[in-house]
Write a structure and sequence with these properties.
Radius of gyration of chain A: 18 Å
Number of strands of chain B: 0
Structural class of chain B: mainly alpha
Order of helices and strands of chain A: HHHHHHHH
Helix content of chain A: 55-70%
Mean pLDDT of chain A: 87
Largest sheet of chain A: none
Mean pLDDT of chain B: 76
Low-confidence stretches of chain A: none
Oligomer: heterodimer
Low-confidence stretches of chain B: none
Largest interface: A-B, 41 and 31 residues
Helix content of chain B: 55-70%
Shape of chain B: elongated
Amino acid sequence: MATAWPEKDDHELLALIQDGNGQAFAALVERHTERFYRLAYRYLQSKAAAEDVVQDAFLKLWENPAIWQPERNSKFTTWFYRVVVNLCLDQRKKKKPEVLDNDAIVADDRATADELMMREQEQKMVEKEIAALPERQRIALNLCFDEGLTNQEAAEVMGVNLKALQSLIMRAKTTLKERLKAYL
Amino acid sequence: MNDNRDEKLDNLLRSRRVEPASPNLAQRIIFKARQLPQTKTMPLWQSVRDLFGEFHLPKPAYVLASALVFGIVIGFTAPQDTNLAVDDGGVSLQGFLSEDEALL
């Protein structure tokens, strides 16, 4: 079982990783896997593909830790989000987007059968319309509606200023409001 | 009306479900990393900085060492005034000695 090292921040763990410390790497992975998986899943809509992307991203960091340059990046999470997004884009180029099937929709046991069916339908439509958005609008939306990421951080991940990000979000939402009007 | 739709859309976007990751995902990544070597590529300036770090010398010592190296380089490249080769129009040392021997 890897040491969690809660007292060490991400920068400290990364410095140790650059010295070849496997335990520091394990601590970083355990600390952040979930959040990057969630982003990758929102983008790829596939558990297997999202897990592959997160694994590839972390292994890329482990194999070549010099890619992390603390003087260029203020926050590890902002930088790593960028790495994950780029890998998601590569993944989409390689594969055709998978059709969201019923098994991928997480059910709420407490809902009635009708409510469940309605929610499933709603989710399917939302994901379908988001998948149809232009790439940059889709990335912006996925980043901004990911918990724990501010709009400013999302803008940094995308390498744009805040205004440009807000413009992307606005355009995405305008399109979605039109296409999902039956559900709003 | 528009605000209502905005709010509903935001709620829809926030309530997007994410299928949970495999519980052992982090462990799989950690295990895989253990089988992979690290590439120790460093920017050149960092390698030089690390190299100097190994010597544990105070900074003035580097200044003196640099001055010494600089001086040696200057010394070898400067023109040599004590060259015994014959100058054009001058008296050679060999000729001068030969004259002495001739007298003897």
